[in-house]
TrEMBL record:
Gene: Mutyh
Top-rank taxon: Eukaryota
Note accompanying the cofactor annotation: Binds 1 [4Fe-4S] cluster.
Keyword Cell inner membrane recorded: no
Annotated compartments: Nucleus
EC number(s) stated in the UniProt entry for this protein: 3.2.2.31
Residues in coiled coil: none
Protein name stated in the entry: Adenine DNA glycosylase
Chief localisation class: nucleus
GO CC annotations, alphabetized: nucleus
Native organism taxonomy: Eukaryota, Metazoa, Chordata, Craniata, Vertebrata
Organism of origin: Chunga burmeisteri
Length: 451
């Protein structure tokens, strides 16, 4: 209704599922296909066989948090390792609480009181397990939420989508809907990227699918469609359809279990005019769900006319100077200095070579000077800018940042006393470096010093 407030006529009734018989048929077709074709995934197996609803919820929760922005094939191994280490919410919360009790009281991530350079052990474990998945704060929030369930909610998981979203840090509308429907059987829909694509195609929704009004519209549709007796399976089926059949570039419409309900396909097959009045007629009247008049149906794209997104913002361009400080360890093997990033923001809590964001347009000579000053703060002694060896540039693309690392190295003679007033830092061998919670970008940086 909010979408329609003030919107010009005609109302977009043709973008809806308004026939109960059609909804029933679509549910049946989708669930039959899902029962036959679904992929075997470890969290699905657990959710289908585990009698305890809270244990199911934990497994779904871990998998859904990992799947945000990450492909299924990548997640499986991380999920299995996580569940092996912390098989239940209680195990994760317990580990977290033990660290709190043993620590110095600077919760939630207390450090070993004997040395201010030691990282919080649990945080380090979480980061190490998460390293490579990206969006590292997700692991930390999962850990915080587990602790909250045990210490503030008497160990009881919230059981509705509304409560899950309200009470658990890091659980948004989608994750709450997934946990509530799959684990607790609540008849509530979910909307993720796959569902957006499927629904937009089923009902020829060509308005900007990233706009809040259209997302709200799709949530209403998902809630209306979800099967009342098998909500979890229905939601997974809709997402599975988007992941395996109704894929972004070359959807397999011929094999699609809901093709008879798909208006984008009908539009593609029959072109214009259609045998019955159809959604393309809406556009003429300024329908808020049709593609904008400036971007009409393109017959060469077929069903991939939908969904449509407004042009993406350009990623932010950043340059960062970084230095691989190297010393000889006690057995003559090289050791490298790594320092910990702040606990919030990009790559929160991960370890990196000492690095410094560079102002735009800084000359090479000036870059060296600011980096030398920065290193001096870590090492507690002067660093000569000329001594820094320029290695080259390493480019790494984060989802919203185009990052260039300007890489230097500096071999050191003798021992270096790290400034205890600085943030956590440590010397690591190559092996320890790779086992630490370091980002993929830093692995590239180390690789660049060897070429
Ligand atoms: Fe997607 Fe094609 Fe199925 Fe329509 S028919 S839902 S476009 S795969």
């Amino acid at each position: 209704a909010a979408l329609l407030a003030g919107a010009p006529a005609p109302p977009p009734t043709r973008h809806l599922f308004s026939d109960p018989a059609e909804i029933e048929a679509l549910r049946g077709h989708l669930l039959t296909w899902y029962d036959r074709c679904k992929r075997d995934l470890p969290w699905r197996t657990l959710a289908a066989t585990e009698p305890d609803a809270d244990r199911r919820a934990y497994a779904v929760w871990v998998s859904e948090i990992m799947l945000q922005q990450t492909q299924v094939a990548t997640v499986i191994d991380y999920y299995n390792r996580w569940m092996q280490k912390w098989p239940t919410l209680q195990a994760l919360a317990q580990a977290s609480l033990e660290v709190s009790i043993a620590g110095t009281g600077c919760c939630p991530c207390p450090r070993d009181s004997s040395s201010n350079t030691a990282p919080c052990l649990l945080e380090q474990e979480v980061n190490e397990l998460w390293a490579g998945l990206g969006y590292y704060s997700r692991g930390k929030r999962l850990q915080e939420a587990a602790r909250k369930v045990v210490s503030e909610l008497a160990g009881q998981m919230p059981r509705t989508a509304e409560d899950l979203q309200k009470l658990l840090p890091g659980v948004g509308r989608y994750t709450a809907g997934a946990i509530a429907s799959i684990s607790y059987g609540q008849a509530t829909g979910v909307v993720d990227g796959n569902v957006i694509r499927v629904l937009c195609r089923l009902r020829c929704i060509g308005a900007d699918s990233s706009s809040p009004a259209i997302i709200d519209w799709l949530w209403d549709m998902a809630n209306a469609l979800v099967d009342r007796s098998r909500p979890g399976d229905f939601n997974q089926a809709l997402m599975e359809l988007g992941a395996t059949v109704c894929v972004p570039k070359a959807p397999l419409c011929g094999e699609c279990p809901v093709k008879q309900h798909c208006r984008a396909r009908r539009r593609k097959l029959f072109g214009k005019p259609t045998p019955v009045p159809d959604v393309e007629d809406c556009g003429v009247g300024g329908c808020p769900l049709c593609p904008p008049a400036a971007e009409p149906w393109d017959s060469s794209l077929g069903v991939t006319n939908f969904p449509r997104k407004a042009a993406k913002k350009q990623p932010r361009v950043m340059r960062t100077a970084t230095c691989v400080l190297e010393r000889r360890g006690c057995h003559g093997a090289p050791e490298y200095l790594i320092v910990q990033r702040p606990s919030s923001g990009l790559l929160a809590g991960l370890w990196e070579f000492p690095s410094l964001p560079l102002a735009q347009g800084l000359q090479e000579e000036k870059q060296r000077e600011v980096l030398a000053d920065h290193l001096q703060a870590w090492m507690g002694r002067p660093v000569v800018a000329r001594g820094l060896r320029y290695i080259g540039e390493v480019v790494h693309i984060f989802s919203h940042i185009h990052q260039t690392y300007v890489v230097y190295s500096l071999p050191l003679d003798g021992d270096v006393t790290l400034d205890p007033a600085s943030s956590p830092s440590r010397w690591v061998t190559e092996e320890e470096f790779h086992a630490s919670a370091v980002s993929t970008a830093m692995k590239k940086v180390l690789g660049a010093t060897w070429t």
